[in-house]
Amino acid sequence: MAQSLKTIHATCPHDCPDTCSMLVTVKDGKAISLKGNPDHPITKGFLCGKVSRYIERTYHPTRLLHPLKRIGAKGEGRFEKISWQEAIDTVASKLGSIIDSPFGPQSILPYSYAGTMGRLQSSSIDRRFFHRIGASLLERTICATAGVAGSQMTLGARAAIDPEAVLHSKFIINWGSNTSVTNSHLWTIMHRARKAGAKIITIDPFRSKTAEKSDLWIPIRPGTDAALALGIMHVIFRDNLQDQDFIDKYCLGGEDLKSRANDFTPAKVSAITGLKPITIEQLAHEYANTKPAFIRLNYGLQRHGGGGMAVRAITCLPGIIGAWKETGGGAFLSTSGMYPLKAASAFERHDLIPKGTRSINMSLLADALNDNNLAPPIKALIVYNSNPAAVCPDQSKVIRGLKRDDLFTVVLEQFPTDTVDYADIVLPATTQLEHWDLHTSYGHLHVQINEPAIAPLGESLPNTEIFRLLSKAMKLEPELYESTDIELIKEALEPSAGGFNSAKVMSAITFEQLKKEGSMRLDLPKDYAPFANGHFPTPSGKCEFFSTSMQKLGLDPLPSYTPSHEDPQTRIDLATHYPIQLLSPPDPAFLNSSFANLDWQKQDAGRPTLLISPKDAASRGITEEARVRIFNNRGEFLAHAKITDAVLSGVAVAQGLWWNKDIPGKANANATTSTAITDLGAGATFFDNLIEVEPVSNSDI
Ligand SMILES: Nc1nc2c(c(=O)[nH]1)N[C@H]1C(S)=C(S)[C@@H](COP(=O)(O)OP(=O)(O)OC[C@H]3O[C@@H](n4cnc5c(=O)[nH]c(N)nc54)[C@H](O)[C@@H]3O)O[C@H]1N2
Ligand SMILES: Nc1nc2c(c(=O)[nH]1)N[C@H]1C(S)=C(S)[C@@H](COP(=O)(O)OP(=O)(O)OC[C@H]3O[C@@H](n4cnc5c(=O)[nH]c(N)nc54)[C@H](O)[C@@H]3O)O[C@H]1N2
Ligand code: SF4
Ligand SMILES: [Mo]
Fold it and tell me: What does DSSP assign to residue 622?
């Protein structure tokens, strides 16, 4: 028999700005190799260690391949196989009876995030389904909303330039960004820029891999970045280093900002940030004098109570020195707003949302599931593309909620995650090798296709198909779900007018062409610099140092510094009991909690570890490798201590996100994180977290 061999275009679906373009080779219906697309200008033929083994992940023996119903207690993880027919009938009839009950449809809550970033498998038929049945809306705040809101207030958009232009930068700041790990393809561009003479600086309380590889690490105290940005402005204005022409032409509120910054003397900022005044002075001078200067600000710094304002303050800096006008100058948060795809409102049928439907903030799931006053209470939770039992703040409370006997939980998953253990019904989902999708990126300017390489394994189905089955069983209008996945891709590609970029930039991008090429760049000029000549999409059309939108919201119209909710300087009461600021950023081997179940990735990550300073370890009798208990009034988790000068005294780092069921103590760092939200964007505050640490003996575990 002749062997069939083909290579198809795929896209990494994970929540990572790099959105790698991939080539998958398939032989006789089996995927046999997967590699980075060598022709893609960002991917350049390399994938990170996690995804280069995606084939093994897909064929992993622990994949969920059949619908399941729970037979044990919630959390036990005991299930039995059922047919799709029974699974869909059970879910449809349960949702139907909730809709008809006095609780009504809003007691149903979808819960999804970016397990896949694909337009189809993350937000297409699923959204239409929930909108049509009148379920509560989910505010998707767990990652980026504070930073997006902060940037939006200043620039009218997410800070962005063409990432390929970073090659021309001469002064690069990674600000709250572990770029070499979380955005590794941009790091290679930075690295090339360095070879051409650029200096790389990293501002981070933790000497991350990126800080380690930088020319300078600036160990700021967590949650104080807005103060540093204002201190830099102070020095720039004081020493007359600003680009007055750019400010006069394209910015609003230059004089107001100057007088605000006047208060933030290096001495004052030093006391807040823990940095020496000279460090602040030098940073300001180098930033203003080295052109082009580029800031990669990322999401690490906005996971604090004042995170929105911090991003707002930092996104003022390129305007002050006119960096936007230089190739490779400016700042970068995300390119996700650059794509004029069909508007979400039309594609996801927002018109079907019943008037007055409430929104539930996903970062507050712990509260929502346990709130006796919530009317109506949440009676059904449909989870997909997310693992809330591991990733949500205030984990013990989340789990208490998931254990509720009167809560009907459905989980669509590829693997038996912590969340799956609490499901009543588990629906097996396909991986990226088994379904169609369409991708934009938040780290570059390409549109990409994902063609299925292989048939779905076992009885797994794409999310789109699962929601089709549910829509049909609940007798929704066929027009909502009958389009095939290929038709959905074509529909999503219909450009919408009025966005950041005109529909023109998509005119050559069709399904057929994408299928041929895999990846196509938006038709934008080389080294695209959207704000080189102003054109900020703010209400005034200028970069808004002074924001009337903020004023209307009753907020400070100028950038200011708001301490973290749990700042030891301002919360002395709390800091007496819990004196250490805990950061729990991703472990390089995992992608949020994805990949944390795979042996080879676990080996790479080692074991749950707490990085702690020599001083904090000594004063607590903690020795190297000792088991420690990390706790506060919300919960506790266990780790092994690593004593290191990679964190300053008063700060500790526990890289995550482990699956609870796999680790001693059965809880990860989110046992200690809180549901307090950010000043702008109602985002999660994972890194705004005071804790205490103590050694524990092995017998305690
Ligand atoms: N390998 C890998 N890559 C990933 C992910 C992953 O889990 N693993 N996750 C993806 C996702 S979903 C996201 S959102 C991005 C996140 O990517 P990044 O934005 O880079 O996020 P983090 O690594 O959480 O945080 C970056 C750095 O911010 C630091 N930080 C914490 N608090 C502060 C502060 O107050 N000020 C400053 N200046 N720095 C602070 C942390 O110590 C950390 O080193 O990465 C994506 N890429
Ligand atoms: N302490 C702490 N907590 C954090 C963070 C932190 O830095 N520190 N980071 C936060 C951030 S930035 C984010 S973005 C969130 C991320 O939180 P989540 O969005 O929950 O991300 P993951 O943990 O990767 O879980 C995604 C799940 O989706 C599943 N999945 C993937 N593709 C598909 C599919 O096609 N269909 C279905 N049905 N399932 C699929 C995967 O198997 C995986 O279990 O976590 C947040 N939590
Ligand atoms: S996780 Fe990021 S770096 Fe790794 S393959 Fe996917 S897009 Fe590329
Ligand atoms: Mo994220």
Answer: -
